[in-house]
Write the structure tokens for this entry.
Amino acid sequence: MLELRPNCECCGTDLPPESLEARICSFECTFCVTCAEGALRGHCPNCGGELVRRPIRPAEKLGRFPASTVRKVKPQGCLPA
């Protein structure tokens, strides 16, 4: 099950579970659309994989399967993949 991480690893922007702005790679590294399509050019800086829109978990499932609250932010910000 996806963690639904709460923020962009590059800039720290909040990405709530219902956000259409969240992008992830196959390892669930999480970025905002601005960083993903801008500095990262659609590729994860950690693994080099493709960044795609994160699916939205139905609201009625969040109670039983909550999103992560663990924030990860790269101190160096967004560096191209």
Remarks:
- The longest strand covers residues 22-24.
- The chain has one domain: 1-63.
- The two ends are 26 Å apart (CA to CA).
- Strands lie at 22-24, 30-32, 52-53.
